[in-house]
Amino acid sequence: MRLLIRMSTFTHPVCWSKLRLTQTRTLWLDHRPSLSASLRRRTLSISPGLPGPLVSVLTRRSTISLHTHTPVASAASTAAGSVKSQEDSDRALTRSSVPVEDVRRITSLARPERWRLAAAMGFLTVSSAVTMSAPFFLGRVIDTIYTSGADTETMTSSLTSLCLMLTGVFLCGGAANAARVYLMQISGQQIVRNLRTSVFSSILQQEVAFFDKNRTGELINRLSADTAVVGRSITDNLSDGLRAVAQAAAGVSMMFYVSPSLASFVLMIVPPMAGLAVVYGRYLRSISKCTQEALAQATQLAEERISNMRTVRAFGKELSEVEAYTQKADDVLHLARKEAVMRAGFFGITGLSGNIMILSVLYKGGLLMASQHMTVGELSSFLMYTFWVGISIAGLSSFYSELMKGFGAGARLWELLDRKPEFPLNEGLVLPSDQLKGQLEFCNVSFAYPTRIEAPIFQDLSVTVPAGSIMAVVGSSGSGKSTLVSLLLRLYDPDAGIITIDGHNIRDLNPYWLRSHIGTVSQEPVLFSCSVRENIAYGAVDPSAVTTEEVYQAARVANAYDFVQAFPKGFDTVVGEKGVLLSGGQKQRIAIARALLKNPKILLLDEATSALDAENEFLVQEALERLMEGRTVVIIAHRLSTIKNADAVAVIDQRCVAECGHPTELLANRQGLFRKLMEKQAFLQEEQQQVLQ
Ligand SMILES: Nc1ncnc2c1ncn2[C@@H]1O[C@H](COP(=O)(O)OP(=O)(O)OP(=O)(O)O)[C@@H](O)[C@H]1O
Fold it and tell me: Which helix (H) or strand (E) holds 636?
């Protein structure tokens, strides 16, 4: 049975959730609510977007926003063919209006944080007021210096009091700004955290077929990048946007207040320049997006190859992989060159236009000063306001696109959050556990995988496994042995027919309850990248309640105790990515200990194959036999010894159970399918070797 997909060892919550998502089948077999608690403990901190100086605001913001897609996530998203989500983003960016429902949902996310956000807005008003009044008062300071004439004493005293007053005001402004940043950050993180846990919980509720259709990278992207984008839209973007609007309005008003004639002159120059900067900035952003996508593809290639390094090495593909990566890196470079040309032009033009604007203000302002219509302090204030208005207009242009991006990301999240799983995980009949006997029955089951409905796996398949017996399932590769196990676990539902446990249709049973009574050990068991102790305790309903002695006892019965104790850190040894620090047989025995701790009534086993050496095979076999005692066992058998010890063998062929009976009876039939299969798989040779020994 192939339950294993991919594992990674990261402590970053996003990587952690990736780890869990790539092992969804394992979680389904052993689902527990503590997962969301674990996720809570690992909630990510996101660094805030920083406001940039006048000229670089447009470009820098576009870069920041694109980088919020973590390399892994965006790589996966792009290469995973997440056309839909990309389309969504593009649509969100290009559409001119936003559905009211989207606005309502985004606002509802902020509701729990409303008081903190309201306080942040209050501090924002204070700090913006201080910022916008600073040029005016600084102009006063300059005028005090220049206009007090020879009276040094008067100048000193008014300068001192003015500066002291301004220091107090600036202190208040600084404190208000610090409080605003802190509150916005905390609110943003809280919103992202809530959103992430809801999305992760919604993903884990989905039926397994959902994971066949949706790629891990795409889901991780939603969990990491989309949640961050939505969180930022509500907090940073909103506050930056409001501040930009307020500062632009206040700046223009103050420019008119300080010098109406100079303000009218400047406002004739600003709009065409700002328009040019916005258009250029948009174009630059689209090129920069292509560069990021090319980078994502390169990163995806690197991620996949590095995480499968053993395969790369085993096939000696290091050089060709480097070549493939170089190709991708060249694509990035090619686009980056285009971007560099655009960027150079953008910075050149904006720098030039900024300087020309200042020069124009100085020229016109100088003329006004010469005609006694303006003081030096007023001209200084005016220049500072011009600067602030420039920054605010640049900020506004990115505010709109960031907000649209937030709506696009939100739409993808709602889709996931609103999705109802095909069958809810915690509904249905719960039988008294002590009365469970464990008789299994497949009655006329027909099934095709939802992703391949045109290729039925079973047609009218029927078989019974009496309580407490061992049923070996055999059949050629691809005949559907693992599928049988998946159906028993209710990872999928049959299209027709029923599967029963003690006469109860498993569709009527509570899936949590059902799975809590079924243990699984797969051929390549999935271990999480935590300690041996945690991996074993994972089998229990409440791992935190498992005592050390219980873990040791399970390990002893599973023949795992001695080798684990021999590790320098014993049971606290971290098993590494994909359990890489353990051998195949050791992983098997840890998985057996995990299943023992679960103490299930029904056991589904995929027997380890010849990958194990003789000693390991013996130890695993011995542990499995102990595990099987007193339980109903369905075992996908690969060894004759296992098949011979089974109470019955079911041979799957042509989408149904072609033969079923005691192994000796079936072997006796020379024309029988089982006999032929055994001969083909050289099981008989194995038996002859045993006889010779
Ligand atoms: N999730 C899936 N979606 C679509 N088809 C699948 C899925 N899993 C398995 N299949 C297909 O179903 C068929 C039966 O697969 P299954 O893994 O049950 O066979 P098996 O008898 O266990 O094979 P093996 O002995 O090689 O492990 C195969 O043709 C396989 O390609």
Answer: strand 632-636
